[in-house]
Amino acid sequence: MRRFFSTILMVFLLTAPFPAAPAAAGAKVTFIPQWAPQSQFAGYYVAHDKGFYAARGLDVKILQGGPDFPPSELLPAGKADFGTMFLTTAIVRRAKGSKIINIGQIVQRSALMLVARKSSGIKVPADMNGKKVALWGEEFQIQPRAFFQQQHLTVKILQQGTTMNLFLRGGVDVASAMWYNEYYRILQAGINPEELTTFLLADYGLNFPEDGIYCLESTFQKDPRRCINFVQASIAGWQYAFAHQDEALDIVMKYVNAANLPTNRPQQKWMLERMQDIILPPGGKIPLGTLEEATYEKVARELKNYGFIEKIPDFHQFYHNCESPHEK
After folding, report:
1. Which has the closest alpha carbon to 226: 327, 89, 319, 315?
2. Residue 238 pLDDT more than 90?
3. Would you tell me which of 95, 180, 225, 323 could form a disulfide with 309, CB atoms 3.0–4.6 Å apart?
């Protein structure tokens, strides 16, 4: 029955992007994605600029994210109402007492990878032993660290910034990359795919869904309809972005240029196409925005097995279904 309602919602949103169920007119809310403006967040920019949020009575201000502005810290601090983060990050935070909840799981598969030059002698995981590996901040280290444990590796971890310069200049042997972003940047820098060894963590049993929409329990309890409206307008934004990619890229580039970021339209086009791959995986039957309990339990068990959490948070307290119209 739940899948029936979810299917009806998908059809409804595609045919009527401004469904009626408004919160209080002009309700001001803030949203922070976990990184700087790029196609990784195209659906939210589209929902804002096409009026999907406004049609649901939401006056949304989109903040600029990045490594120094983690949503997992800004939400509890009251500096944002909604934010995106990896499922792993949210589970770990929840297990440590944070009242963060998932109200919409957008990305359904992992795009996180480790990249090395073949010339460094790294061709299989064991070759990383003793090597210098660049990782982003704490929130993005969970999967790589689980991978190192799984493969019984001891590596020297260095801090990775927002560029790939450390890797490109030979400062590290292995770097972190997202399939939809940094991997493409490496290719743009003139390195051929045949020169690289790539380790997609999803291929090693670490296929942990990434970007979801989060808020605090108190935010949801105070105004559940506002949360539902935000999620459903965001879903409509993603659907519109995938159906009208040129227009979506126009919108993304507006945000990119306003932030003076060093990227270009071809890179953002690649990213948008890859986002579609991980948000709507081929053959996937999971309604956009849904976090399935089996997926949650699998990820949480792995986090417990690798020592990131001691106790698995209750799924029904962690996830609130806002993608389906029968949610109250």
Report:
1. 327
2. yes
3. 95
CA angle at 259 for the pair 75 and 144, rounded to the nearest 5°: 55
Can you tell me the distance from the alpha carbon of 134 to that of 121, in angstroms, rounded to the nearest whole number?
Answer: 17
pLDDT score at 25: 52
pTM of the model: 0.87
Per-residue model confidence (pLDDT) at position 302: 93
Phi, psi of 86 (to 5 degrees): -65, 150
What average pLDDT does the segment 189-207 reach? 95
Q: What is the pLDDT of residue 19?
A: 37
Q: 224-243 and 2-15 helices cross at what angle (nearest 10)?
A: 60
Q: What ranges in the chain are assigned the alpha helix state H?
A: 2-15, 42-49, 52-55, 71-74, 87-95, 142-150, 165-168, 182-188, 217-222, 224-243, 245-258, 265-279, 293-305, 315-318
- Burial string for 85-121 (b: 16+ CB within 10 Å, else e) reads bbbbbbbbbbbeebbbbbbbbbbbbbbbbbbbbeebe
For the chain, what is the mean pLDDT? 89
**Which residue's structure tokens are 């770097």?**
175
Which tokens go with 176?
């972190």
pLDDT in tens, 25-34: 578 999 999 9
Give the side-chain half-sphere CA count within 13 A for 280.
Answer: 13
Tokens of 80: 């944002």
Give the C-alpha separation, 41 to 34, whole Å.
9
